[in-house]
Amino acid sequence: MDYIFDTFGNLIEQTAFFNLTYGNFLMIAVACVFLYLAIAKGYEPLLLIPISFGMLLVNMFPGIMASPEDNSNGIGGLLHYFFLLDEWSILPSLIFMGVGAMTDFGPLIANPKSFLLGAAAQIGIYGAYFFAIFLGFNDLAAAAISIIGGADGPTSIFLAGKLGQTDLMGPIAVAAYSYMALVPIIQPPIMKLLTTEKERKIKMEQLRPVSKLERILFPIIVTIVVVMILPDTAPLVGMLMLGNLFRESGVVKQLAETASNAMMYIVVILLGTSVGATTSAEAFLNLATIKIVVLGLVAFAFGTAGGVLLGKLMCKLTGGKINPLIGSAGVSAVPMAARVSQKVGAEADPTNFLLMHAMGPNVAGVIGTAVAAGTFMAIFL
């Protein structure tokens, strides 16, 4: 009988209830809130569901992220090996290939001025860098944190890994992906604050048709120009443009479909769950994380504002031919930011269609964020 009681006692002690801290319970609650936002509200479910589920798992069973050195049997936890692919920059680069294969670069080619709007939205990145220095982070950490301002999760992970900031990778990635998911909540108030109703009602001329030759040459030329200037951007810009070349060449339909569908979704699962699993209570609930989350929000707000304000200036210079709302799409959240520009414009005038115009700055923002990351790598590596 004693044996039975001892066995049951040992089983009960092995349950998570006897090993969790208040911090773990708090993180479990946060994970459940994220799951609610993803499932009930539809906020970027492809990102938030795997991230929040990884957060849920690691706060009930920390061993799922344990390294081989932490276990007596020399075998690491499942998500530890997923996370190595993040640290090695493999998953972020593959995400970029999928984005390139899914995205139409035509609006950017048809309206090259979109590059300026994408560049203006990167002001949040550089502002966040100096703000992070002010808050006590060193140069490398500040550079890694600042990329959150571009609302670009893969680039944030890529740069944090390259700069050796793996301890901050979890909070940085979660903040970046959270703000990407919350674009429909964060951006509209800023857009409406900085524009008038008359500006929001501006209808833009239809974009010119883009030839197949232009579509094929664009990813090749961008790759040559950007990588020649900033070689460290090759993994991101190269994969982004390779994916787009798959799409536009018309001769590798199978590769384009694989990159934009099966491969993309597999990578999202691996990256999302491993990033979420870095948010154990011990690693996440500290002052540095709070600073990172605040910095990310400030940077994202400034990036949105920078794009809209340049849009207003371009509106004035062109005699009212550019709707300033498309400037907010200069952050890298593709295509969510462009959809938000369309939504806010349609609220002012239901017959206003800004989506394709906003896709130009949106794609330019992806390239701009990669360039910003490459600039930091060129300075600090």
Termini separation (Å)? Answer: 65 Å
Fraction of residues in H or I helices: over 70%
User: What's the total number of strands?
Assistant: 0
What can be said about the biggest beta sheet?
none
Assembly state of the chains shown: single chain
Instruction: Give start-end ranges of low-pLDDT stretches.
Output: none
Helix count, per DSSP? 21
Shape: globular
Q: Indicate the structural class.
A: mainly alpha
Strand percent estimate: under 5%
Write the H/E string, N to C.
HHHHHHHHHHHHHHHHHHHHH
Q: Overall pLDDT, averaged? A: 90
Round the Cα radius of gyration to an integer and report it. 22 Å
Describe this structure in words.
The structure is a single chain. By secondary structure, the chain is mostly helical. Helices cover 72% and strands 0% of the residues. It contains 21 helices and no strands.
Characterize this entry briefly.
The chain is mainly α and 381 residues long.
Give a quick set of tags describing it.
0% strand, mainly alpha, 381 residues
Indicate the topology.
Elements: H1 2-14, H2 22-39, H3 45-60, H4 78-87, H5 90-102, H6 106-110, H7 114-120, H8 123-134, H9 139-146, H10 153-162, H11 166-181, H12 183-194, H13 197-200, H14 212-229, H15 234-249, H16 253-260, H17 262-276, H18 281-284, H19 287-317, H20 336-348, H21 355-380
